[in-house]
Amino acid sequence: TPRVFSGIQPSGGLTLGNYLGAMKRFVDMQDAGSHETVYCMVDQHAITAKFLEPATLAANTRELCAGFIAAGIDPAKSILFNQSQVAEHAQLAWIFNCVARMGWMQRMTQWKDKAGKNSQNASLGLFAYPALMAADILVYHATHVPVGEDQKQHLELTRDIAIKFNHDYGVDFFPITEPVIEGAATRVMSFRDGTKKMSKSDPSDASRINLTDDADAIAKKIRKAKTDPEALPSEKDGLEDRPEARNLVNIYAGLSEQTVAQVLAEVGGKQFSEFKPMLADLAVAKLAPISTEMARLMQHQDEIDKILAHGANQAREIAAPILKKTYEIVGMVGA
Ligand code: TYM
Question: CB-hemisphere CA count at 13 Å for 126?
Answer without folding.
Answer: 19
